[in-house]
Amino acid sequence: MGEEGGGGGGGRVVVVVVREFDPDKDRRRVEEVERRCEVGPSGELSLFTDLLGDPICRVRHSPAFRMLVAEMAGEENEKEKEIVGMIRGCIKTVTCGKKLSRNGRTSNDPTKPLPVYTKLAYILGLRVSPSHRRMGIGLKLVCRMEDWFRDNGAEYSYIATENDNQASVKLFTDKCGYSKFRTPSILVNPVFAHRVRLPKRVHIFKLSPSDAEAFYRRRFSIIEFFPRDIDSVLNNKLNLGTFLAVFSESYPTESWPGSDSFLADPPESWAVLSVWNCKDVFTLEVRGASRVKRGFAKTTRLVDRAFPWLQLPSVPEVFRPFGLHFMYGLGGEGSRAVKLVKALCGYAHNLAKERGCGVVATEVSSSEPLRLGIPHWKRLSCAEDLWCMKRLGEDYSDGSVGDWTKSPAGLSIFVDPREF
């Protein structure tokens, strides 16, 4: 069933219908709207996304997802229907806080904090054709998606948008009742023509999905936004592996002992991260670059390839479609954890180079201590990505957390790669 509403333009009576996305019928028209919405400012660099013919690619790996389209048709000719907007949404269960065990049955250590979970919805990919804005279509799409969230038991809904996207911020905070919640940083580093040298005194272990799951559940489960179905993430075909780094002098073994043994007696410093292959989901392209900028970028790549031992930074070929790898689940402990994070990022860079990617990206809390070890180019990165959140109902999971939208930010967040 669709939702109808009236609108006007040039004296013509129109009807807006919000309905389920039909991949067979709507794919081409949805792609046309995406292209119209991604027209960048004249003379400025703009980032374009190609969803590789799959409009729901950015949500299809979530436990529950939906896509809606807004269709406009003139009353006189119902065949002249045009898709003028779309929205995507997904639902999962994540950590929203922590509490102490009330008895010894739920934990071997009653003083150890336990995660408090909530059912969280995420809105992304809201688009309204430029020629049909200011007609309430965006609000209509959001309201319909929120109805689906509530019907499926979601307690909160959140969105991510650029801090300077005033139209989007105003829609969600002024009209939809969302509050500004978190401001994580998106850090992006180019993939150079040379391999990054890794420190010889660092061991990097690759964990199996089951071992990585055990590790993350024991050390990360009380971090905000940690997905309860972390096993689904780690076993997904797009997950390229979980990697843990230690200094060889403090952990001389070259074989991974298993998460239980490692955590029973960990070294003073360690770091971990996982890598997700976004390249097979979507590609990016920078448009609007001048011939001079393109020429300079090409020159840096030629020099880098000719003299790789110099380890010179080069601008990758971002002026045609390129892929990226996303680093997530980043964490660590110890006084030298930042150095180990830097080594892991170098390892991830080399993996991306082998697989033909243009950039490596991650998203971390603005207060994350380990961000100092993440190499990135400021021009490619976003210092403040804005997350806005809304409480969908009066009932919520646990009284010890209260209203999550009013809770203070922690040092870290867990960014789900399925929604990047």
Automatic annotation (TrEMBL):
Q: Which InterPro entries match?
A: Acyl_CoA_acyltransferase, GNAT_dom, Plant_NAT
Q: Which residues form the N-acetyltransferase domain?
A: 16-199
Q: Identify the Pfam families for this entry.
A: Acetyltransf_1
Q: Where is the signal peptide?
A: none
**UniProt xrefs under CDD domains:** NAT_SF (cd04301)
What keywords were assigned to this record? Answer: Acyltransferase, Transferase
Domain of life from the UniProt record: Eukaryota
Q: Which PROSITE patterns does the annotation name?
A: GNAT
GO MF terms, alphabetically ordered: acyltransferase activity, transferring groups other than amino-acyl groups
- Of which family is this protein a member? Belongs to the acetyltransferase family.
Q: What is this protein called?
A: N-acetyltransferase domain-containing protein
- Write down the species: Vitis rotundifolia
